[in-house]
Amino acid sequence: MFFIIDILGTIAFAISGVLVALNKRMDAFGILIIAFVTAIGGGTLRDLLIGNTPVSWMLNMTYVYVVIGSTVIAIVLRSKIDYLRTHLFLFDTIGIGLYTLIGIDKGLGAGLHPIICIALGTMTACFGGVIRDILCNEIPVVFRKEIYATACIMGGVSYFLLRKLPIQEDYVFLGSGLIVIVLRLLAVRFKISLPSFYRDEVS
Amino acid sequence: MFFIIDILGTIAFAISGVLVALNKRMDAFGILIIAFVTAIGGGTLRDLLIGNTPVSWMLNMTYVYVVIGSTVIAIVLRSKIDYLRTHLFLFDTIGIGLYTLIGIDKGLGAGLHPIICIALGTMTACFGGVIRDILCNEIPVVFRKEIYATACIMGGVSYFLLRKLPIQEDYVFLGSGLIVIVLRLLAVRFKISLPSFYRDEVS
Amino acid sequence: MFFIIDILGTIAFAISGVLVALNKRMDAFGILIIAFVTAIGGGTLRDLLIGNTPVSWMLNMTYVYVVIGSTVIAIVLRSKIDYLRTHLFLFDTIGIGLYTLIGIDKGLGAGLHPIICIALGTMTACFGGVIRDILCNEIPVVFRKEIYATACIMGGVSYFLLRKLPIQEDYVFLGSGLIVIVLRLLAVRFKISLPSFYRDEVS
């Protein structure tokens, strides 16, 4: 079950990378790298920061094959991919729910403070997109719009709150993952975003 | 004493990140990440390169709290922060003096060559700002203007020269830290900057 | 022999960094950092991902001296460097051939899958340039033009194919290194590049 969500999330992330790279007129190599970085960049940064090397994707070829396959299919079907937009959005949203929890789990495994674990979860879910945007010479979209990272942080906080209740570990995972997903869906549905505090008075 | 300088430096770095992020119209999450990266990015890169993981800030929550606190206060007081510009500049300058020495110390602890130690010191002091600028889609300001990194390099060189003299370790630290601070103050006061060798003849 | 190629490659990479930094009007510190990152960035990223820390260049001062020397010479001779363009192109091309093999070798040493080893080889050869372009606020040129990375990937694939034949290890290295070099030369000579699949129909 977790495995299927993980793969669907990886596919959604890789395809989102392909779409950005196509619009930047990159060649086939560039598209593959951007797809790869979007799908596994967050987990890679997390692994580097906690010293979990070689990083995860080097030891599990599944991700590599899934990203390469998704990239080839997305390139071939590029003119039809708009029809899948809603599905991809759902996969992506479910993906960040799971990735947040994977990041928290790795942080707990390394004996780190809950706040650091939540940061690692958010990083796992969001920083693939950050690295994608940097490689594409854009200010990361997650820093500017939508409650994307915030949903991950809220889900992470919920995880540590739910853990204090007399609930089975599985339900704690399920509950906090769902909170990420529901917050993200609500934010997109009702166009909720964080304040930006831009100072007009500044030169 | 060192601890207070470290905290003041962290505050100055975090606030400088907040100001850049505000001008880039980032949302609250983006502002927090930029503040964080500016304050702890240099030390994080240093820790990664020498294999010191989990990286320092994951093991010491003080930095996390200081950055979050500074960010909230800087956002709230954003219209008044210009009045603090001189104080922030001083904290920042004292901060890079200390950070240079912390980086050198970590390099020595890993048994590395003095040149590498000086590079690690400069990285600790300057690369938070470099990562901040990359995330904000700017060419890093430290590569273009002001004797900022150069002050750190000079302070690092002084450290290894002073160590050869019959001086107590504490005074070696103090002396080379002061050299960083004084050079930076002089460079800003007299608008000294490095040459840039731009070639007009190049197409 | 390998050592000389390695040094020539490092010189070519460092000078390519200097040229980009000069055109971006960076100061002396910026130029040095860009030269350094171009020359050793790919190997550094590889070392970080496989957990080989402190990263290679911190333990072998040769690279540091070669980069600093190349940078100083390139700045001094900047108005004459166009005459060396063909030599630099050759050094660079031979360099990526060797770097690809060094990356593969490190991957094998860490017991990683052949596909990961090829990725590490390509990373060693190409990602110094990627980091250089990010620091200079450009979309990495290797993602957009020329069969550069592709030559490295083909060379890497050849390495694993040739290894299955009853050929001495030395000749396997030589053969696959030559494939990288010849493919790159052919691609530049005949202006071959990868397709980019840019979608005009996308808004």
Automatic annotation (TrEMBL), chains A, B, C:
Pfam families: Gly_transporter
Residue span, Glycine transporter domain: 4-78, 90-163
Domain of life: Bacteria
The keyword Transit peptide is annotated on this UniProt entry: no
Localization (cell): Cell membrane
TM region(s), chain numbering: 6-22, 29-45, 57-76, 88-104, 110-135, 147-165, 171-190
Keywords: Cell membrane, Membrane, Transmembrane, Transmembrane helix
Key word Kinase present: no
InterPro entries according to UniProt: Gly_transporter
Membrane topology type: Multi-pass membrane protein
Family of the protein in this entry: Belongs to the UPF0126 family.
Protein name in the entry: Trimeric intracellular cation channel family protein
Organism: Formosa undariae
